[in-house]
Amino acid sequence: MEKKIALIAHDNKKEELLEWVTSNKKKMAQFELYATGTTGESVEERLKQKVVKLQSGPLGGDQQIGALIAEGKIDILIFFWDPLEPMPHDPDVKALLRIAAVWNIPMACNRTTADFILTSSLLFEKQDRVSPKFEEYQNKQIDPSTPEKNTRPE
Predict the structure, then answer these.
(1) Where along the chain do its domains lie?
(2) Which of 3.30.450.20, 3.40.30.10, 2.40.30.10, 3.40.50.1380 would CATH assign to domain 4-124?
(3) Which of 26, 57, 81, 105 sits in a 20 to 30 Å window from 42, CA-based?
C-alpha cells in the first residue's frame, strides 16, 4: 500500500521544505504526494515526481487537504508553517491542524518532526488508523429550551 503524504509550506518555509524533500528524494518516490498551490509545483519540479496539486492555501488548498484527511485519503501531513508570520488565512491553518489531530494522522510542522516521521520503523508498515469515536458527539440531544447547554463537546 502506497502511503499518501500531504506537503504544505508557508512562503517563508517553502525553501526549507524543498530542501527537506530533496534530501529525502528516494523515500519521497515511494509515496503518492499531494500539495497546495505553488508548493506542489515546486516539489514536482524539484523531485521530477508527480504531485497532486490542489489550490493555494489562502484559496482553499488547506481546506482541500483537510477534506482529504477526513475522507481517509491522506496518511501523513507535513506542514512547514511559519508561527512567527501573521497569516490572513490563519483560521484555515488552525482548522487543518485540528482536523489532522481529530483524524489521528501523523503530522509534522517542522523539519525535525518530519525527519522523525520519515525515519520511523512504522512508516512502511500497514497501519489501521484508529478512527475517532464520535457517537456521543453526533447523538447528543439538543434541547431548544436551554441554549447554554447546546454546545457540543470539543
Answers:
(1) 4-124
(2) 3.40.50.1380
(3) 105
* 151 belongs to an annotated ligand binding site: no
The whole-angstrom separation of Cα 91 and Cα 16 is 23
Residue 50 assigned as binding residue: no
**11, 62, 75, 143: which is the annotated catalytic residue?**
62
Specify whether 11 is catalytic.
no
Question: Does 56 belong to an annotated binding site?
Answer: yes
pTM, full prediction: 0.83
Task: Judge contact between 18 and 49, C-beta under 8 A.
Answer: no
pLDDT tens track, the chain, 154 positions: 689 999 999 889 999 999 999 999 999 999 999 999 999 999 999 999 999 999 988 888 999 999 999 999 999 999 998 888 776 667 888 899 999 999 999 999 999 999 999 999 888 888 777 667 776 666 765 556 655 555 555 5
